[in-house]
Amino acid sequence: MSQLLALVCLLLSAAPPRPGATPAVEPPASFEARAVRVVDGDTLDVLWHQRTVRIRLVGVDAPERRQAFGKRATGYLKEATRGRRLRVVGAANDRYERRLAEVFVLTPAGSTSLNRQLVARGLAWHYLRYSDDAELARLERQARERHLGLWADPAPVPPWEFRSLERRGSKRPSPRPPEGAIIGNVRSHIFHAPGCPDREKVAPHNRQLFATDAEARAAGYRPARNCPR
Questions:
Q1: Is 64 one of the catalytic residues?
Q2: In a 3-state reduction of DSSP, which class is residue 183?
Q3: Percent of the chain residues past pLDDT 70, beyond the cut
Q4: Residues 34, 64, 72, 116: which is the catalytic one?
Q5: How many Å apart are CA 48 and CA 36, to the nearest integer?
Q6: What is the pTM (predicted TM-score) of this model?
Q7: Does 167 participate in catalysis according to the annotation?
Q8: Of 98, 99, 144, 187, which residue is the catalytic one?
């Protein structure tokens, strides 16, 4: 009996693993795929070897869908990826198991980075907290200067701030700025003098206070277009 049991154990140990027991193979650092779903302006699902992989566009942060320009950013990503061959470049995953990557649209003429296109069109911010990419910084600065996309708003709310407020459930208004102060927005480099309609909308952590119009201009700021002249 003991010999029979030993033989059964030996046969079981030599049997091949069950089909479902094989661990999933991670995609390589660079691979081709096609989009199967766009989640929002900076997240999409792609199909790789019959497996769906969620991609988070690295170095950029698009407006949330509930924000101004959130739907436009999502719509652009859908249109740009529909029926196209994509190359996904990036080896790391974030804590949500999304692949952090730069995604390129492949055409006979070459390739186009979706990450950079979103920023260049004013449909996403350069995500400075996680990226020091000089080209993304340049593209954001250029889009801001040309008032493209979300930069048409004199004081757009960054998506990371929007998410933070939602998590806290904060509906409290921003504290009132000092009377008579000129408020500069450190991200847009636009300043708002007393009487400007959006003066108090600048988030507290984005504020730079100036005593005079000349001081703000000397620091590289320009007046908001909707301020009374």
A1: yes
A2: strand
A3: 85
A4: 64
A5: 10
A6: 0.67
A7: no
A8: 98
Distance CA 117, CA 102 (A): 11
Q: Which of 18, 34, 51, 56 is catalytic?
A: 56
121 has pLDDT over 80: yes
pLDDT of residue 221: 87
Domains along the chain with CATH numbers:
30-152 (2.40.50.90), 178-229 (3.40.10.10)
Residue 131 has pLDDT above 50, yes or no: yes
Does residue 35 contact residue 46 with C-beta atoms inside 8 Å? yes
Establish whether 98 is a catalytic residue.
Answer: yes
Instruction: Identify the band that residue 53 occupies on the pLDDT scale cut at 50, 70 and 90.
Output: very high
Q: Measuring CA to CA, which residue among 170, 176, 226 is closest to residue 201?
A: 176
Q: Which two tokens stand for residue 109?
A: 């003429």
Q: Which of 98-102, 204-208, 221-225 has the highest mean pLDDT?
A: 98-102
Q: What residue type is 44 in one-letter code?
A: L
| Contact of 200 with 174, CB cutoff 8 Å | yes
